[in-house]
Amino acid sequence: MNTIKHIVILPLLILFSWSGLAQQENIQFEAKVSKSVLGVNERLRIDFTMSKDGDNFSPPSFDGFSVVMGPNQSISHSWVNGKKSFSKTYSYILAPTSQGKFTIKQATIEIDGDVYKTMPIDVEVTASVAQSDEGDAPTSLTEGKLYLVAELSKDNPYLNEAVTLVYKLYISPDTNVSDFRALDNPSYNNFWSQEIDITRYEMQNSTYKGKPYRYVVLKQVVLYPQKDGKLTLEPLSLDVTIDVPTNKRDFFGRRMYTQAHKTVSAGNRTLNVKPLPENGKPAGFSGAVGQFDFKVTSSKNTLKASESLQMKVEVRGKGNFKLFSLPEVELPNSMEVYTPEFKENISTSLSGMSGSVSNSYTVVPQFKGTYTIPELSFSYFDPKSQSYKTLKSEATSIQVTDGPMPSASTAPVQGGVVKQQVLATGSQFKFIKLSPALVGITRDDFFPSTWFFSLLLLPFLLIPMAIVVVKKKQEFEADVEGNKIRKANKLARKHLSAAKKALGKKEEFYVALERALHNYLKAKINIETSEFSKEKITEILREKGVENENIEGFIGLLQSCELARYTPASEVAMQQDYDKAATVISKMDKQI
User: Fold this and answer.
1) Residue 25: pLDDT above 60?
2) Treating both helix axes as pointing N-terminal to C-terminal, what angle do 480-501 and 571-591 enclose, rounded to 10 degrees?
3) Which among 350, 385, 9, 304 has a CA at the least distance from the CA of 154?
4) Comparing C-alpha atoms, which of 525, 492, 587 is closest to residue 500?
5) Under a CB-based contact definition with an 8 Å cutoff, are residues 92 and 42 in contact?
6) At 415, is the pLDDT very low, low, confident or very high (cuts 50, 70, 90)?
């Protein structure tokens, strides 16, 4: 009978175990996203769903995203064909913080004592796309309230011609902007760019799409295209926090406002950049585009040899100053030329760069004569006239009135180059003597001389002296405390001497005087800099037997050094403080 019971119960236990395992395996906990690829101006919805209620839900860190809304919790019960199902979801609305590829890590939940985890999810954030209201406030509240517009000064510029890009945020009259942050900043590829700082945001009235709006300029950039053809500007995207009116009224009948997030994007802008014409391009053209003036000036036209003059090559006007090079000066070989000093005075506004750039050459002539500096030319392209222009400087004559002549007679100057002749001076060839006429050297016997015995005995005399010197040196090095005191004392005298040299210069004098006082304390009472408080110094000096008068004088000097940093001091006061320091240190030294 017992055997039959075991046979019947055993299958039932196995059946219940299988059903329990099946029930445990049916528990699901997973994460789902609304999209795996989204623009930086879009929102991402992520749901963490479980098939059985649990505890201690822990979301991931959401690296690369900020939480706009959530967690929102929803629970669902359903019966299908007599079978009960359960679902619980935690939902978040996320906003990307930048472009890139990100991984949403695992979330965890505890169900029936076991910990369940979701699988990581990869999400790619691209540049801004068409505007999306997903995750924002209801469309009825934000529709038509904000527009971000990118305005270009021109759509078809020439290569290296200035283009102004201005970002304006248009705001409806019944909407207030609380805050905004950039989601995506353009990189301006294929452009040389410079942003113009905006020190203050100012609201101005205007119209947009035929309706009244207010606008504020958020960003201003000057662009110089570096490539011809169609160039696309990446959009600027903003996450804007706005206060919008609702249909609700408060107790006094005033309309109530609610805060909402709105993502706006300026969209892509395309420029058709025209290449510079090849027809008529000058040979010395270096890429200058704009309107310029050109001149070459010399600080002197008459000077002596070995004196110097400054030759300045300067370009002024408006254009792409940072994107072209200045013409180089060609001078005669007999004039020494140093590396030019480059200077620029450029400012950038909405119309582009303007100002001047120059190269200053230091020139030193070596010989007397007349030198001609040939003319220089500078070429640029003028977008207004759509033509190349070449500016030329006048040839400059430099007269060197005093100095060595390049030849026996005045050499002609042709094309700015001084021709020199080779002059024969003295004998041009030296003959080798065939008879050397050598003279013999007479020598005395060195061995029995006095010098021989003196040099022989000298090492034996030097050995005791060397032993004494080494012993004294070892004793000196072993005296660590004494060395510290001597070093600090020497440093104190050094700074007191520096203070004397700095008389009349307030800051230098009192810094040197304070160092001298501190180093004196180190030398005499072994007090470290970290212990330099007036109370500590007074206490130690009294223990050393220093009189109160001298202690007060020393503390007064330290206070004078401190006050001198903030108050004016005359040269008479500095001299008095120096004399007082010398007297106080002398008296304290005797008492210690």
Assistant:
1) no
2) 160
3) 350
4) 492
5) no
6) very low
Write down the mean pLDDT value for the chain: 80
Bridge partners of residue 337, in order along the sequence: 363
In a domain, 131, yes or no: no
Alpha-helical runs (H) found in 440-570: 450-478, 480-501, 506-525, 534-543, 548-563
Could you give the dihedral angle defined by the CA atoms of residues 413, 414, 417 and 420, in that order, rounded to the nearest 10 degrees?
A: -60
pLDDT tens digits, residue range 503-523? 777 778 888 888 888 877 777
Q: Residue 287 corresponds to which amino acid?
A: G
The verdict on 112 and 64 lying in the same domain is yes
As to burial, measured by CB atoms within 10 angstroms (0-12 exposed, 13-18 middle, 19+ buried), residue 521 is buried
Can you give the pLDDT at residue 498?
A: 77
149 plus 266 within the same structural domain: yes
Last residue of a domain, one of 273, 308, 326: 273
CA-CA distance, 221 to 150, in Å (whole number)?
A: 11
Residue 465: inside a domain: no
Q: Residue 278 domain-assigned?
A: no
Same domain, yes or no: 144 and 245:
yes
327 plus 234 within the same structural domain: no
**In-domain check, residue 156:** yes
- Pairing mode, strands 55-58 and 163-171: unpaired
For the domain that residue 379 is a member of, what is the CATH number? Answer: 2.60.40
The domain tally of the chain equals 4
Q: What is the pTM of this model?
A: 0.51
Whether residue 380 is found in the same domain as residue 329: yes
Beta-carbon neighbour count of residue 216 at 10 Å?
Answer: 16
Q: Which domain holds residue 100?
A: 26-126
Q: Is 438 helix (H, G, I), strand (E, B) or coil?
A: coil
Tokens of 158: 């020439």
**Residue 59 CB neighbour total at 10 angstroms:** 20
pLDDT at 345: 94
Report the number of secondary-structure helices (H) and strands (E) in the chain.
8, 32
CA–CA separation, 269 and 167 (whole Å): 12
User: CATH no. for residue 40?
Assistant: 2.60.120.570
CATH number at residue 587: 1.20.120
With tokens 């590396």, the residue in question is: 339
pLDDT at 518: 80
For residue 245, give every residue at least 6 positions away whose Cβ sits within 8 Å of its Cβ, in sequence order, or none: 174, 255, 256, 257
Q: Three-class SS of residue 215? A: strand
Clarify whether residues 143 and 256 are in a common domain: yes
